Amino acid sequence: MPSDPTIKRIGLLTGGGDCPGLNAVIRAVSKSAMFQHDIEVVGILNGYEGLIRNQVEPLYAPDVSGILTRGGTILGSNNRISPQHFPVEENGEITYVDATDRCLQTIEEHRIDATIVIGGDGTMACTMPLIEAGVPCIGVPKTIDNDIIGTDLTFGFTTAMTTATMSLDRLHTTADSHNRVMVCELMGRNAGWLTLAAGIASGSDVILLPEIPFSIDLICEYLEDRMRSPAGFSIIACAEGAHPEGEGQIVSQVVEDSVEPIRLGGIGHLVAAAIEERTRFETRTTVLGHVQRGGPPVAMDRVLATRFGVAALELLVSGLQNRMVVWRNGDIDHIPLSDVVGGQRLVPMGHPMIHAASAVRTCFGQDL
Ligand code: F6P
């Protein structure tokens, strides 16, 4: 592969909420840069905050050895700070400034010729001003939500799906013992991929997705039937972004400075309370939370992360820039990084997973 001679040192950054597999990408990019292309690597700490605050450290081979299986990110991450909306305190008052120039200074000071940014659509949005200023960038899509436009799969999703499935399996046995309804609230923001996949994999009886507003009456009707069957218990996989028809999502927190300020959460408890009130079935709620983001990546995510990392570096050295690596039709591909900004990949109504779940009598809280 012809190497771009202008790229002698790259900066690596992990942005947004973490997910399993980030370290596997860091390792893949760094090792292939160092060993295949004789390119130096520096790590930018804590996402875009590190670029603004000039927190940059060289990465050497020993730094990226032994991290393939480790969850989290050795670089640190951040889903609050955006260079375009950076809070500064002046005379006791917070004002927001565009800190793109500070990022460019850091890039110049550390002689960074190109950056590889590992993140979701928020991180890719933060990358656009750097691209516009002439910094070559390549994106690598990460998130447990699997909601990034242009890629069929993000790394981190398969691990989160596995964790969620195992948790739902555990709820099954206790639900069975006590003849209870168990509601499990899962992450995913506005996208139902995680809940849909884990719901199917665990054989959940009801799956509630943000894309399909639900009717509590329909859910209760279904549960009345199911609870009278020999099974006598029920599992509900409920996405944090799910909501009743005609009503909005439940916001648990607004993180003012964040690129994506809305944090969802609380719908699981509301669904459980409504079910118990109407049916009198004993109902409990589990909010799985950040457990879904933690821990070592499953084998599939290690493979995907390694392939993404190597592909990102290869794009750079072949002279391509401002692209994001994607997984499409069972292989690696790449698209303009700008394509993913501001959009979300949601579950389409006719998706084969919805069809399959409906065929085995899973309730989506709506007539489909
Ligand atoms: O985007 C990943 C994600 O885990 C979402 O599923 C969830 O809604 C959000 O991040 C939680 O954000 P935080 O870590 O700020 O609570």
Summarize the structure in words.
- With 368 residues, this protein is α/β, with parallel strands linked by helices.
- It folds into two domains: 9-155 and 295-340, Rossmann fold; 160-292 and 348-359, Phosphofructokinase domain (Rossmann fold, 3-Layer(aba) Sandwich), CATH 3.40.50.
- It contains ten helices and 15 strands.
- The protein has helices at residues 22-37, 48-52, 100-109, 121-132, 157-178, 193-201, 216-228, 267-279, 299-317, 352-359; strands spanning 9-14, 40-44, 56-59, 86-90, 93-97, 114-119, 137-141, 181-186, 206-208, 234-239, 251-254, 262-264, 283-287, 323-328, 331-336.
- It has a seven-stranded mixed β-sheet with strand order 3-2-1-6-7-14-15, sandwiched between helices.
- Helix 7 crosses helix 8 (267-279).
- The model has no long low-confidence stretch (mean pLDDT 96).
- The structure holds 6-O-phosphono-beta-D-fructofuranose (F6P).
- 6-O-phosphono-beta-D-fructofuranose (F6P) binds next to strand 12.
Helix content class: 25-40%
Average pLDDT, rounded to a whole number, is: 96
CATH fold field value of the largest domain: Rossmann fold
Sheet with the most strands, sense and barrel status = 7 strands, mixed
* Tally of strands: 15
Q: State the end-to-end CA separation.
A: 51 Å
Series of H and E elements: EHEHEEEHEHEHEHEHEEEHEHEEH
At CATH's second level, what is the architecture of the largest domain? 3-Layer(aba) Sandwich
Outline: elongated
How many H/I helices? 10
Oligomer: single chain
What class, by secondary structure content? alpha/beta
CATH class of the largest domain: Alpha Beta
Percent in strands:
15-25%
pLDDT < 50 stretches:
none
Please list the strands of the largest sheet in the order they lie side by side. 3-2-1-6-7-14-15
